[in-house]
Design goal:
Elements lengths: L2 E12 L38 H13 L11 E4 L9 E4 L6 E10 L2 E14 L3 E5 L10 E5 L6 E7 L6 H18 L11 E11 L9 E6 L2 H20 L7 E6 L4 E7 L9 E2 L10 H9 L5 H12 L3 H8 L2 H11 L5 H19 L10 H12 L5 H14 L3 H8 L7 H14 L1 H8 L5 H12 L6 H13 L1
Parallel strand pairs: 10-11
Antiparallel strand pairs: 1-8, 1-9, 2-3, 2-13, 4-5, 5-8, 6-7, 9-10, 11-12
Helix pairs in contact: 2-3, 5-6, 6-8, 7-9, 9-10, 12-14, 12-15, 13-14, 14-15
The chain binds adenosine-5'-diphosphate (ADP), magnesium ion (MG) and zinc ion (ZN).
Adenosine-5'-diphosphate binds next to strand 1, strand 8 and strand 9.
Length: 482
């Protein structure tokens, strides 16, 4: 029997607001433990939360960007559970009246456009952080644990998809697209190492073509999209084997160990009723009236789709280039910055997609760490387009810029790479090359025009690739036909 995987994702995004969700403490990663906390985020008796307006604005941006509807009223709930990093004994979250509902995000999975439904987008708060001393930071074998409240109460948005994803690859594509969108929205740094973006994946399998959902398991807190993709593939394999052997999938949380590639069941899954949700009595409802929503909509940053259209219209870029350039906020920002220093958008986009992305792919590097800044790349392309250096030399210079962070001008000067366009100088070299190759001259004169390429190649060799090809062609032609 053929099985079809069914995947739904729950994504947590820490917002990059200045202050926390329900108090005035600063939001930042790390720092001296317990220096950014107060009675509210440490849950002292009698402390009262006040909702952060900016966080609600960011939340609205996310909801709108995911094509959700925003009901005029949503409320906070208490989600009760005990854990040392949760001092109140409950997390303030949203339950049956979330902020935004019923949206979607389209992805290209394979060559097919797939619409992934967004069930809900809601507001909650992050927990504090347990720090396990000794034994490599893991709870198993730790001597004792400490709690850092700096993170406690950081605004956290949860995005829940519908079970519309049907392969581990598509899950990864979805997450990449979502992350990029969040970056365009300027609401989070989406730093996965620092935990600003975290994902739980729910997965089940069912007979291909069936309209029913199978029993799901959950992979929690995957800290990279690559791990998530791999973990899902493993878990799908495990479920299919189980079912084929006549067994049953148990609804539970499973742990994926990237190092061993093993999936192991962890604990039975909790259900909504375990949390004893009830409305948070200390907070008023959130009234997102049409005035508020329209204000947010009007102030939305430019999103990737709109940017791509602008590149096509304003700069005449091919649709493909526009899509690649806007597929990451960093790349798109880089492109626009470089345009200030070199205004041929088409040539710039080709160079970015060919050379720069090629280099990053080959080295596995990130654009943010690339030593060639937009201004320097603009400088290099300017030297090429004005004929100071040839295109081929430009590629070498670029490689060196990537390694050393030096400017194109410096490298060209110190290595004597400037293009030779001087007619007399090139004519002299052409003359020598012609004199040394009488047989080829004969062929050319007998009508074999292609031999010209041979002579051009010889001149290039003599000049270490620095000769201006147009001038070389001209002087060779003159000499050979004259
Ligand atoms: P729970 O109450 O167990 O958390 P939810 O209904 O809230 O379950 O769904 C959580 C996530 O799991 C959502 O992203 C949803 O799309 C996904 N999901 C629900 N049922 C299934 C299923 N049978 N297989 C795969 N994913 C599922
Ligand atoms: Mg859930
Ligand atoms: Zn605080």
């Amino acid at each position: 029997m053929e099985f079809e995987p069914v995947i739904g994702l729950e994504i947590h995004v820490e917002l990059s607001t200045r202050s926390k969700m329900f108090c005035g403490c600063r939001v930042a990663f790390g720092g001296e433990p317990n220096t950014r906390c107060c009675p509210v985020c440490m849950a002292h008796p009698g402390a009262l939360p006040v909702a952060n307006e900016k966080a609600i604005e960011y939340l609205a941006r996310i909801g709108l960007a995911l094509n959700c509807s925003i009901p005029g009223r949503s409320i906070f709930h208490r989600k009760n559970y005990f854990y040392p990093d949760l001092p109140k004994g409950y997390q303030i979250s949203q339950y049956d009246q979330p902020f935004a509902v019923d949206g979607y995000l389209d992805i290209m999975a394979g060559n097919e456009q797939t619409t992934v439904g967004i069930e809900r987008v809601h507001m909650e708060e992050d927990t504090a952080k347990n720090i396990h001393a000794g034994a490599g930071g893991r709870i198993a074998g730790a001597l004792y644990s400490l709690i850092d409240f700096n993170r406690s109460g950081t605004p956290l948005v949860e995005i829940v998809t519908r079970p519309d994803i049907h392969s581990p690859q598509a899950a990864r594509l979805f997450l990449n697209k979502l992350k990029n969108l969040l970056k365009y929205l300027d609401v989070s740094d989406c730093n996965m190492e620092e935990g600003s973006l975290r994902c739980d994946a729910n997965v089940s399998v069912r007979p291909a073509g069936s309209g029913e959902l199978g029993v799901k398991t959950e992979l929690k807190n995957m800290n990279s999209f690559k791990h998530l993709e791999k973990g899902l593939a493993k878990e799908i394999e495990r479920q299919v084997e189980l079912l084929e052997g006549g067994g049953k999938v148990v609804q539970q949380t499973v742990h994926f160990d990237f190092a061993t590639g093993e999936v192991t069941p962890m604990r039975s899954k909790e259900f909504a009723h375990d949390y004893r949700y009830f409305p948070e009595p200390d907070l008023v409802p959130v009234a997102a009236g049409s005035g508020f929503v329209e204000k947010i909509r009007a102030g939305m940053p430019e999103l990737p789709g709109a940017r791509a259209s602008r590149y096509i219209q304003e700069f005449g870029l091919p649709a493909y280039n526009a899509e690649v350039l806007t597929s990451s906020r960093e790349l798109s920002d880089y492109f626009e910055e470089a345009l200030h220093h070199f205004d041929d958008a088409r040539a710039l986009s080709n160079w970015l997609m060919g050379e720069l992305l090629g280099y990053l792919n080959a080295t596995g590097g990130e654009l943010a760490d690339c030593l060639v800044k937009p201004r320097e790349l603009g400088g290099l392309l300017e030297m090429i387009s004005s004929g100071k250096i040839s295109n081929a030399v430009g590629k070498d210079v670029f490689a060196e810029m990537c390694k050393t962070g030096k400017s194109a001008g410096e490298i060209v000067k110190s290595r004597g790479l400037a293009q030779i366009s001087d007619e007399a100088e090139l004519a002299a070299i052409a003359g020598r090359v012609i004199a040394a190759n009488p047989a080829q001259v004969e062929q050319f004169r007998a009508g074999k025009g292609k031999v010209l390429g041979f002579f051009v190649g010889q001149v290039m060799k003599e000049t270490g690739g620095r000769a201006n090809p147009q001038v070389v062609n001209r002087v060779l032609r003159e000499k050979l036909t004259g």
